[in-house]
Write a structure and sequence with these properties.
Number of domains: 3
CATH architecture of the largest domain: 2-Layer Sandwich
Strand order of the largest sheet: 13-12-9-10-11-14-18-16
Radius of gyration: 21 Å
Strand content: 25-35%
Distance between the termini: 69 Å
Shape: globular
Oligomer: single chain
CATH superfamily of the largest domain: ATP-grasp fold, B domain
CATH class of the largest domain: Alpha Beta
Largest sheet: 8 strands, antiparallel
Structural class: alpha+beta
Helix content: 25-40%
Length: 421
């Protein structure tokens, strides 16, 4: 049998978008050939939000090999048939979490615990597994009918939160203060497609937890789990939707007041069988301590991994490639930051055809301006922001001075506007 080194070393990145594209580029930088695996046909992605549409998958300029196969067993055989030495399989997005684990397990490569594969994507299963591990989660129930919903309301009392079991981006999530709102929220989810195209045959119901919301991003390497970056969420209610993103800002990772939160995030990853790579635990802290909202078992979105790489001595993408491929991973500790980051979400309540955007030039002149992203262009039809996908404008701010960041973030909110015809 030929030695492994006689073959071309390669990695598989499944359903790569956003940070998954940075992961792809990092694998190439480390000398790997990159196989782009897409778990759904191209037509499937046309119904998804723009950031999940990968037309680039068809172009070999980006990948050395491309496999498009929704039947994962067949996909594994297609990968085995390639004349490549595949050394790692990694998720390139939330959509890629389950297929990446499945494929890696079938190829006998490094993967997260295959027995908990559903718990790393399905919010109902996730809470059950975490609760069984003795960690605090919101009171919750798998709802298949309005009778289930009414029983759950009597059990926990209002308000409650209703979520698609495998959705992302706040899509069709309802924060319900009345029975009527709960019934309407249930109808929005049941038998409807979530933000990633999966039809929901049940609804995740959970009690509403007040408190401060955080993300404590982690990294795992063969069971060694540590927090890499820490963020606080600021959400607001608008006249259109509740609990919308307004700001996410970086916190000092070495501040001891966050130790309990970080330990809880690590315990979440252990409970969910995350043995390799990045994870994105989102949680709240109230008077009773930390409690899980959900965990994304992949690189975070909103450029958080790229900001971690650029501002600290830890690179999540480079470490992902090494960890999943079984290469030695040397992490310099403690993780230190040379600056801070602030992510600004500018929502809108406007409706109509976009004439122009207000404030872009002034925003780009701010001292802390780093980059921005417009969801729409002039001439597009805009509607009021209801979730992350319909947010029209994102701005990333970076600076050493946290007070300056806070002031610049408020300035972004004041400056940005949309003119409609």
């Amino acid at each position: 049998m030929a030695d492994r080194d006689d073959y071309r070393k390669a990695v598989v990145i499944v359903d790569a978008v956003a940070a998954g594209l940075a992961l792809r580029d990092e694998a190439k930088r480390q000398g790997y050939l990159v196989i782009g695996y897409q778990s759904q046909p191209l037509a499937y992605f046309e119904e998804l939000p723009p950031s999940y549409r990968p037309p680039y998958i068809k172009d070999h300029e980006y990948y050395d090999e491309i496999v498009i196969e929704g039947d994962l067993e067949k996909g594994v055989e297609l990968l085995k048939g390639l004349d490549l030495d595949i050394r790692g399989v990694m998720p390139g997005s939330e959509l890629g979490v389950t297929p990446a684990d499945f494929i890696a397990h079938k190829l006998d490569l490094r993967c997260n615990d295959p027995k908990l594969i559903s718990a790393r994507r399905n919010k109902v299963d996730m809470k059950r597994v975490v609760e069984k591990a003795g960690l605090r989660v919101p009171k919750h129930r798998d709802l298949k009918s309005k009778r289930d919903l009414d029983d759950f309301i009597r059990e926990v009392s209002l308000p409650i939160v209703l979520k698609p079991p495998t959705g992302v981006g706040m899509y069709n999530i309802s924060f319900c203060n009345t029975v009527e709102e709960a019934h309407a929220g249930f109808d929005k989810i049941i038998h409807q497609a979530d933000s990633l195209g999966s039809v929901c045959d049940h609804v995740n119901g959970e009690e509403y937890i007040s408190g401060i919301e955080y993300a404590a991003d982690t990294f795992s390497d063969d069971g060694n789990i540590f927090v890499t970056d820490l963020w606080r969420y600021n959400r607001v209610d608008t006249s259109v939707a509740r609990n919308q993103y307004r700001d996410i800002y970086m916190l000092p990772i070495d501040d001891p007041k966050y130790d309990e939160l970080k330990e809880y995030a690590v315990d979440l990853c252990k409970a969910l069988g995350v043995k390799y790579g990045a994870a994105h635990p989102e949680l709240k802290v109230d008077d009773d301590g930390p409690v899980m909202m959900e965990v994304g078992c992949r690189l975070a979105g909103c450029h958080m991994p790229q900001l971690c790489r650029d501002l600290s001595n830890f690179d999540p993408m480079a470490s992902m490639v090494k960890s999943f491929c079984g290469e030695p991973l040397i992490v310099e500790k403690p993780i230190r930051y040379k600056g801070h980051a602030w992510i600004v979400f500018c929502s809108t309540e406007k409706r109509g055809e976009i004439d122009s955007f207000v404030g872009l030039e002034e925003i780009q002149e701010l001292n802390s301006y780093h980059e921005h992203f417009l969801t729409y262009t002039a001439g597009d039809s805009v509607s009021p922001t209801e979730d992350l996908w319909s947010n029209p404008f994102y701005v990333w701010l970076v600076h050493e001075d946290r007070d300056l960041l806070r002031r610049d973030a408020e300035m972004v909110h004041r400056l940005f506007d949309i003119k409609v015809k």
